[in-house]
């Protein structure tokens, strides 16, 4: 997992932003909750979904390298795909966060989104192959 390359503080930021993003469409799916639970367990982060008071700018300031910002966007897009689609509200929020991070390069965002989608396709393809009789 690429989040292994982040500091503990940066992983907390990823979790906080992800919980905030999951609520963007006012419908946190079971898959999104499971993703957040898995992330919190993997990194010893308190599982708290109420991030309505999150200071986004303060959180983003902790992502002090391009690598940390790209990994964060990758995790946020991965979360967004968990409910089966990267919805308009989620896209808008991810793109706004990318802009605030100084990553308003459309080509880079499209590459990150394609990277995540290919990962999901890879997992799906493997599951299908393993389930064939």
Automatic annotation (TrEMBL):
Gene3D superfamilies: TerB-like (1.10.3680.10)
Record organism: Thiomicrorhabdus xiamenensis
Name under which the protein is recorded: TerB family tellurite resistance protein
């Amino acid at each position: 997992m690429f989040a292994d390359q982040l500091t503990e503080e940066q992983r907390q930021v990823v979790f906080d932003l992800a919980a905030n993003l999951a609520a963007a469409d006012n419908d946190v799916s079971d898959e999104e909750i499971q993703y957040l639970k898995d992330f919190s367990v993997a990194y010893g982060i308190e599982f708290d979904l109420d991030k309505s008071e999150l200071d986004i700018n303060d959180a983003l300031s902790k992502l002090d390298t391009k690598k940390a910002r790209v990994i964060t966007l990758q995790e946020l897009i991965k979360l967004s795909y968990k409910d089966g689609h990267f919805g308009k509200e989620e896209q808008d929020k991810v793109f706004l966060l990318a802009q605030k991070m100084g990553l308003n390069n459309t080509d880079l965002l499209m590459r990150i989104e394609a990277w995540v989608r290919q990962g999901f396709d890879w997992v799906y393809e493997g599951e299908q192959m393993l389930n064939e009789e």
